[in-house]
């Protein structure tokens, strides 16, 4: 498996905090993430001829995963008399039925559609079942873990895929490789986790791609600026060096806020959003916080900067969570037109779409969503 694929698997694993700290189960969950990432790569790069082989390979591996993982998980839950075992089994059965429906799609010959549907199903299972239902049994399993860990590990070792999955898990969780190859090196692993927590805690997705992408980039800039400011307060870096970095970070944040507001306002005007004037007025009112922050940074007023940075973040989060979500309900039937207009703005150099911003968007938004093709 390519190093770049391992890096993407690791990023998903760490950013969404997927480890249950039950090795046999964690290894199989990493195996599922690997299937998803490899299928994504196939869909991006494969020609129609090879799509059949790629789809068949992933579907076969997904079915192998269900046989091995569901068997292990259900035996574990049965051994500890888990009260919701029946519900868990039903969900497993439903997922197997979904994979069988995907298998039947092969007869249509449209392997790209079948692969997109399979990718949607695997992502949905990863985020709705593993991050929710599997976490629900975690405390119960950990109470009995010492009693059952030996036979769990033995069960895993007897799998025909155990060597492959063991090596995959080792590479994904290897700490030295994580530091060297982390996909978002310019952003930072800790910063990415904070961005992820804010994004999901406050449910900030609007459903408009460029708006969500810019919101994520703004969060990144704010998190980075706050971190530099805290380092300065703790005197972790020389004051003169850090002072320059903070000013650069503040300038970048403020400039991007202005660009973001300009982008939103251009879209609202182009498509005659009914509440454009009120929305723009809120943007203008926010300029007061920005101007105050600029002045305080010039005066090197550290206490005021701390408060203003928090005010800045609070305002943006509340504005996104309430006002910007109204945009989606107005534009939801015209998202294709909005995306086309955004491409025009980008070509004209009126907006900037950074590579890392796209990467964050793909990680945090596309993994919430499913491809547009229906089952």
UniProtKB/TrEMBL annotation:
It comes from the Bacteria. Residues 22-139, 206-328 form the Hemerythrin-like domain. Keywords: Iron, Metal-binding, Oxygen transport, Transport. GO terms for molecular function: metal ion binding; oxygen carrier activity. It holds the Pfam family Hemerythrin. PANTHER family: BACTERIOHEMERYTHRIN. Belongs to the hemerythrin family. This is Hemerythrin-like metal-binding domain protein. It comes from Leptospira inadai serovar Lyme str. 10.
């Amino acid at each position: 498996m390519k190093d770049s694929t391992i890096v993407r698997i690791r990023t998903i694993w760490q950013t969404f905090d997927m480890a249950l700290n039950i090795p046999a189960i964690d290894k199989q969950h990493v195996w599922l993430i690997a299937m998803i990432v490899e299928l994504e790569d196939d869909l991006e790069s494969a020609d129609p001829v090879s799509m059949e082989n790629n789809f068949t390979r992933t579907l076969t591996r997904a079915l192998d995963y269900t046989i091995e993982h569901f068997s292990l998980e259900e035996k574990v839950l049965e051994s500890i008399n888990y009260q919701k075992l029946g519900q868990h089994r039903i969900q497993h059965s439903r997922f197997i039925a979904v994979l069988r429906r995907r298998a039947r799609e092969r007869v249509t010959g449209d392997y790209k559609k079948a692969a997109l549907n399979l990718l949607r199903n695997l992502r949905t299972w990863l985020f709705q079942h593993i991050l929710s239902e599997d976490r629900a049994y975690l405390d119960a399993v950990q109470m009995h873990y010492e009693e059952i860990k030996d036979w769990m590990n033995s069960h895993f070792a007897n799998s025909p895929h155990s060597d492959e999955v063991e090596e995959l898990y080792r590479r994904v969780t290897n700490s030295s490789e994580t530091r060297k190859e982390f996909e978002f090196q310019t952003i930072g692993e800790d910063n990415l986790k904070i961005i992820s927590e804010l994004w999901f805690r406050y449910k900030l997705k609007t459903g408009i791609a460029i708006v969500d992408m810019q919101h994520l980039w703004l969060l990144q800039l704010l998190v980075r600026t706050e971190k530099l400011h805290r380092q300065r307060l703790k005197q972790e870096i020389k004051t003169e060096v850090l002072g320059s970095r903070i000013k650069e970070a503040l300038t970048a944040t403020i400039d991007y806020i202005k660009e973001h507001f300009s982008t939103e306002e251009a879209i609202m005007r182009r498509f005659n959003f009914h509440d454009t004037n009120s929305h723009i007025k809120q943007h203008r009112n926010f300029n007061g916080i920005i101007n105050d922050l600029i002045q305080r940074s010039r005066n090197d007023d550290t206490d005021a900067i701390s408060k203003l940075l928090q005010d800045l973040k609070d305002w943006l989060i509340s504005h996104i969570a309430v006002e910007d979500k109204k945009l989606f309900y107005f534009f939801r039937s015209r998202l294709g037109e909005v995306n086309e207009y955004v491409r025009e703005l980008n070509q004209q150099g009126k907006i900037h779409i950074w590579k890392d911003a796209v990467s964050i968007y793909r990680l945090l938004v596309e993994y919430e969503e499913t491809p547009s093709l229906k089952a």
